[in-house]
Fold this sequence. Notes:
- By secondary structure, this protein is an all-alpha fold.
- The chain is 79% helix and 0% strand.
- It has 9 helices and no strands.
- α4 (59-73) packs parallel to α6 (98-114), α5 (78-90) runs parallel beside α7 (120-132) and α8 runs antiparallel to α9.
Amino acid sequence: AREREVKLRALFARLQKAEREDDPKGVVALIDEAVKEDEGMEKMLGVTKLRALIKIGDADKTREYGARLADVHFKDEAQGLNAVAWYIVEKPGDKPDARLMKFALGVAERADKLAGGKDGAIADTLAKAYYETGDAARALEHQERAMKLAKGTPLENDPEMKDRLELYKKKAAKE
């Protein structure tokens, strides 16, 4: 156990260095190496690898790895699925990959279903996924639900959630 802890500390230090140096390919390589040594590391480090793949900009590899996380590691975990979907839709750039956004929408829908439609953060992710797939009306519907679910939680005063609500209202009014 002590040896594993020492290895983990060294790995995390190397990962932090690669992230500070904005080296997403280095992050992916470090995680792949760690997972090769200990398959149990993938669940712990998978979302970090996904974020690095997103930064690299390879939509196919991002979707492929996101599917692995969603179908293997987080298939029954609403929060894990939400993380996968959120990182994909959070900042998709000027021309998001349509297939990647559609994939994220499916993952967000699964997360919302697992959470019984009662988690504001997941509803917010689902709304963003609908928006990024071009459905502002559904985005607005889910963002309004997210805002209701956020009442009485730390999310209630999240300015970004409020900004997204206004954005979806404007966009839905134009459709």
